[in-house]
Predict the 3D structure of the following.
Amino acid sequence: MPGSALNQFGVTVVAANAYTLPGINTLGISLARIDYLPYGLNAPHTNPRESEILVVLEGMLYVGFVTSTSAPNVKNRLFSKILHPGDVFVFPMGLIHFQLNVGKTKAIAFAAFSSQLPGLNIIPNALFGSHPPINDDILAKAFQVDKKVVDYIQSEFERDNF
């Protein structure tokens, strides 16, 4: 069943994992239904314990992931595509990835994971909404912005109770 996507991102995830469906415990698999409002964003995040395969059932999604680097002077590379119903995309374990509904109607996708209990680390929430907060000097230097910008973003995360 769909969940409510009436939130700041316009996306909701309903999971079938070892907590919600104990019968899959120890099988190394899980599934999620993802509902996107028009222009809804599944924000940049990582799945630290599993790879993901996404299939679009309805709507149109712009999806992508960014590679990691292991050599000097090698840039992170974005792999992205616009998906239509029936299209499939794979997100490798641990890499930052996202999905954006680029259509004017809702979108629905199913994601399968290679873990019975997938992990999730939403990048903006982790960096700007951690408790206690990451020192703003660190974030200002990392993003090469003024500390006032970091303070503002952190205050937005406090306000929205992420």
Summary: The mean pLDDT is 92. Strands lie at 11-16, 30-36, 41-46, 52-58, 61-66, 78-83, 88-91, 97-101, 107-113, 121-122. The chain has two domains: 11-120, 129-162.
